[in-house]
Prior knowledge:
The chain is α+β, with helices and mostly antiparallel strands. The chain has 3 helices and 3 strands; from the N terminus they run αβααββ.
Amino acid sequence: MKKLWNQYSYAIILVVLSLLTSFILIVHNGVSGEDGLMKITVNEGDSLWQLAEDFSDEHMLSAKEFVEWVERHNGISGDRIYPGDELVLPIALEKGNGTQVASSQSK
């Protein structure tokens, strides 16, 4: 075993470090899939349908598609939202303070 280690120690270390780095990158990039999308806090009287209308200029979805997207990506069932809830909307944020249209195909 010692002879094997002496001959291939650099290769073994390289493979282990590569696997560790890959794992860290996958975990880091996979956890926050909703980064770059608009996040809002629900106010009293807000509804998903009203939010779809309020942000209609900033997305290319029908109101129904918008509501379904928000429900699916925020774990909501039955379009019930409450004041203080934080929601991710299908509106991509640009690097500046503006917004960019998001597609309904993102999952």
